Every structure is written in structure tokens, then in C-alpha cells.
Amino acid sequence: MTLAMDERTTLLHKYFATLVDSREPALQQLLASAHVVRLEAAQPVFHAGAMCQNYLLVLQGSVCVYLTTITGREVVLYHVGPGESCVITTSCLLGGNDYPAAGVTEEPTIALAISAQQF
Hints:
Number of helices: 3
Structural class: alpha+beta
Distance between the termini: 23 Å
Strand content: 25-35%
Helix content: 25-40%
Largest sheet: 4 strands, antiparallel
Oligomer: single chain
Shape: globular
């Protein structure tokens, strides 16, 4: 499942124009190494205790980020929509920590995935 190059470019310019238009070689290399992923609705994106594998920039759809309490209750922390990225993922990648929460798509979602190594 991939996007046509013109659709990818359109979505990237719509939500992440500053990154796409940057003349910074490191950013251009980062975007060139990224790939588009399509996720179905209700698909887990990450779970508590897992190591972060990818940094996602959401282009369409949304991801719900939540904690599960010791009593089993789910507490929604926030939603990640088009033009956004996950704060917890950023924190995990920068700090080298595992996820303290979980994320699941709320609807079919398209995102640009940047590997943890590239990030």
C-alpha cells in the first residue's frame, strides 16, 4: 500500500511544508529515507513497554494515545491528527526510553515513517 509520489508530495507540502522546503541537507536526507505507511482503523501503532521503531508524521487519519491504569481503565492522553507527530514518541526517541503508553489508529491513517535510526 503506497501513495503515488504526487499525492505524497501534496500531503507533505500541506502539513509539513517547513520540512519539505528546507535546504538543510540533513532534513532532505531524512525525508528521502522515510516511507509512507497505511494503517487500518483500530490498528495498534505502539504499546506500553515497547521500544520505539519509527517516528510517524501523520498525513491523514488519527491516532489515539492512551494509558491503561492498573485497574484496566484506559485514559486518553491526546489524539495525533494530520500535520502532527506524537509527543511521547519524540520523548522516547530523544531519551532512549520505551513507550509508557499505547497508540491505536482511530480511522484509516496514512503517515510518513522515519526509522528510529534515521531520527
